[in-house]
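Observation: inputs received (chain + 2-succinylbenzoate).
Thought: call the complex predictor directly.
Action: predict_structure
Action Input:
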Amino acid sequence: MNLDSIILYHLRMPLVSPFETSFGRATDRECVLIEVRAGGLTGFGECVADSNPGYSYETVGTAIHILRDYLIPPLLGKPLPAPRDYFTLSSPVRGHHMAKAGLEMAFWDLLAQAEGKSLKALFGGVRERVEVGVSVGLQASPAALVNTVEGYLAQGYTRVKIKIKPGRDVEDARAVRAAFPRIRLQVDANSAFTLESAPTLLPLDDLHLLLIEQPLFEDDIWDHAKLQGQFKTPICLDESIVSPRHARYALEMNACRIINIKQARVGGLANALEIHDLCQSWDIPVWCGGMLETGVGRAANLALASLPNFTLPGDISATERYYHKDITHERFALNADSTITVPDQPGLGVTVNRAALEKYTAGKVVL
Ligand code: OSB
Ligand code: MG
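Observation:
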């Protein structure tokens, strides 16, 4: 199966409600949708790089540059790479994991379609439905936050993550915990604290949180190890785990007790599977993080989260939490038990709505 052509779509999609984190506020979500044509089949991948480098150094602009000028030219007209080999094959390009992961996702979609299997089947997933939660952005006040959380609980989510930043931390978490004493609650700082400022978070230890996500610098596994020693609550790393190697460093250093796996951050689904297996061998639970994905990336996340060591609820909420209109015909709904059903059709198991794709395309590159 030769790789015939690739189209990159720069998407800009309005969010149902603004999403604010310690690194900024977004009303639209941008990403790059990658369409790969090979052997009469069409595969899709989603590169989750955002419009700005707040979460990661990668952006839509860097991803399109790296894909168009470095990653794609050596592949055109050649046999489609095996997705499990692609990360190694792409090693002449340093970093740029999100760009690589977007391409690799399309290769998985094509391989699974060619074999007539779902991605879940290809990965060895064991669940038909996966437990999910909702990630709630910073709100105007603790009272507004409680209100927003209440709305999601009414929809059926049983695990809530709230975003925190210096000055909007313990008080916010306390307000939510006081209003909802029994829900599964966790916080995400997106690297907004330092080893010196993080002790202000110590009162979180009394709030029965599932975890504290990425309090310190994105490249700092060592200081997280020092911090974990000060907390009873498990620290969970997100930004710091950019490869299976970094997952191993974190485990060997006791820098965390839980890992958030995002396929894009770690350079693709193959690396995500490897981190899953590594954590399983260490008895470290993992969960699937989210990047406000469209139906394409959401389908891949659901397949990944169907693996056995994804024992904590993922940031894979229902489509309506993000978009009034998505670029896939399929919309993911929340089941009554706070789960979402994993697609079981061949490939990613979703179909792209060409009219919606057109509507949200801000730029296009044909290769
Ligand atoms: O840190 O987990 C994060 C969204 C964009 C960038 C980083 C993060 C997030 C989320 C949203 O928390 C998760 C989701 O619902 O997709
Ligand atoms: Mg996070």
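Thought: report the result.
Final Answer: Residues 55, 135, 188, 190, 238, 289-292, 315, 317 surround 2-succinylbenzoate (ligand 1) (CB under 6 Å). The longest helix spans residues 97-115.
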